[in-house]
Amino acid sequence: MERILHWLFNLQAEWPFKLRLRPWPAALGVLFLACVFSALAAVTVTYQTRVQYAELQRLEQERNQLQTEWGQLLLEEGAWSTPARIEQMATDQLGMRIPDVTDVEVIRP
Fold it and tell me: Per UniProt, what is the membrane topology (predicted)?
């Protein structure tokens, strides 16, 4: 510590101007750096917020599309299990028909 003080006193004597060490330039530097870092943080947070909002909108759109598709699947499921649909498929694909009265044969035990 004594060497530093000795160097400072010699430096003041040798230079054509007085070397004044004041604390305010360092404080201004710290404040400037704090301001720059806070500005960068604000820009970064704003960007991240916009990215996340865009992702949220994309996910909501996908959810709405999937809900629409789910509703359509439920309607199709209901249509496939109706008795009229089953009767039509049995008639068209399997050649089945409702028997006439003359074709009915009653068997008794």
Answer: Single-pass type II membrane protein
Residue 80 has which token pair? 């496939």
User: Is the Cα dihedral 64, 65, 68, 70 positive or negative?
Assistant: negative
CA nearest neighbour of 11 among 22, 21, 26, 1: 21
18: pLDDT strictly greater than 70: no
DSSP the chain: -HHHHHHHHHHHHHSSS-----HHHHHHHHHHHHHHHHHHHHHHHHHHHHHHHHHHHHHHHHHHHHHHHHHHHHHHHHHHTSHHHHHHHHHHHH---PPPTTT------
Distance CA 22, CA 42 (A): 32
Q: Which amino acid is at 57?
A: Q
